[in-house]
Amino acid sequence: MEWILDGLVTLTAALIVGAYMWSVRHHFSSETMPPGARVVAASVTGSTVIMLVLTWLVDQPLLAQIVGLAIQLCSVCIFYAAIMASRKARLRFVFDPAHPHSLVEEGPYRLVRHPFYLSYSIFWSGWAIATWSIIAAACALLLIWLYIKAARLEERNFEASSLSSNYADYKARTGFFLPRLG
């Protein structure tokens, strides 16, 4: 049973990381790939390799694999909802210092300002749980830290852009990574 779950975790992770790679080439656009985006890409690549090794070489509790897999699948829903909501917005790469040219407020953007980073964070957390390893948790925390740094840069870019007034209103009604309550 464990090797079946290892296979499902691996297949799910491969498909999700593949979807993220597709989005870099076909959804996000910037004039050049910023250095910070290269750091994220290298961190994603390294974390993928580490977590694949851990998935197959370390025994995990059955419940951890099932819960981790379910969390990974939840991340896909948020990711694709964000893709659908932002198709026409021409969003920039992670860590792009340029000012934004549009503000998306539909789909998951109605609830959170950074649904892509939220989906990535949920995915890596799920995979870390599925591997049941402190090393995987460290990889996930590193990536989540990078996503938070990127989101904060994007917020500063919005605040310095011609969209600053609209963004301030939007920011007042939505959460950073989690929806506002009430």
In brief:
This protein has 182 residues and is mostly helical. Helix content is 69%, strand content 0%.
Written account of the structure:
This protein is mainly alpha-helical and 182 residues long. It has one domain: Up-down Bundle (Four Helix Bundle (Hemerythrin (Met), subunit A)), CATH 1.20.120. It contains 6 helices and no strands. The chain has helices at residues 2-26, 35-57, 62-86, 115-131, 134-159, 164-173. α1 (2-26) packs antiparallel against α2 (35-57) and α1 (2-26) packs parallel to α3. The chain is elongated, with a radius of gyration of 17 Å.
How are the elements arranged and paired?
Elements: H1 2-26, H2 35-57, H3 62-86, H4 115-131, H5 134-159, H6 164-173
Helix pairs in contact: 1-2, 1-3, 2-5, 3-4, 4-5
- How many strand segments? 0
**Integer count of domains:** 1
Fraction of residues in H or I helices: 55-70%
Number of helices: 6
SS content category: mainly alpha
| Largest sheet descriptor | none
> Using only CA atoms, what is the Rg?
17 Å
Which CATH top level class fits? Mainly Alpha
**SSE order:** HHHHHH
Q: Name the shape in a single word.
A: elongated
